[in-house]
Amino acid sequence: MEFNNDLGRLQRLVALSSAGISRRQAILKKLIINPNDKIIDIGCGAGDLLIDLAKAIDSGGHVYGLDPSEDQISNASIKCTEFNNITFLKSNADKIDLSDNTCNVATSTQTFEYIKNVDDALMETKRILKSGAYFINISVLWDYFGFYGAEKKLNEKIHDAFKAHCCHQMLPMELPGKLSDLGFINIKNKSLSFIITHRDQNSPAKYAEDVIAFFVKSQGISETEVNDWKEQINRAEKEGRFGFTSFPVLTEAFLNKI
Ligand SMILES: C[S@@+](CC[C@H](N)C(=O)[O-])C[C@H]1O[C@@H](n2cnc3c(N)ncnc32)[C@H](O)[C@@H]1O
Question: Number of folded domains in the chain?
């Protein structure tokens, strides 16, 4: 899935919702940033985390925001305009324009699961990290991402069609093994799962519904089916039988380069 135009806009709204805020908080709580650290955020999107990272370092440190999407980078650049210690790298994560052993920290949120050649991207991340560097990633267990309240058959059809939006649906289950193979140690997974039963402007469910509706139309689901699904969800919410669940997982590890 490409995060440009309407999908980019909706993704940026998800990033500003309670889900985006709590993910950034989970990462920031774990980080022990030194003023001279060089930090890369892989798949930086609209750059919300970059600002928090840039504030935590001083002139000896630097923050890199990497994203292949022109749309995301241009929104992030506007947001980060006050910070001269942030550099944007417009590229895929499997080809990072940094020298070997540059960064002390790599962060990433809901990105690696979209990268087809995820092993190459992790290898490239290892290349630009110093020995002892800290890697922290949040990816979603997409099998547990979903809306409840619409008619079962239609709901399943919509969710099945949405599966094509992401190539590594259960990455957090596989990531520890991949990291271990690359020489990462002290690998830990932590659940950030949540449930929502009411939607408001701050709710990721509000925007996730639109992302799904937009995407599944490209997968052969008709406009009528999508509208029916949305209407059924609305009714379910009004009648107090609506739910949305998501199961992000925070994975952390340290790199032991021999
Ligand atoms: C769901 S968004 C997450 C953005 C941001 N991390 C956040 O939490 O708001 C995924 C981001 O990954 C980027 N992306 C997609 N493929 C990528 C790749 N191969 N390498 C690096 N980033 C990629 C997209 O452009 C998009 O901005």
Answer: 1
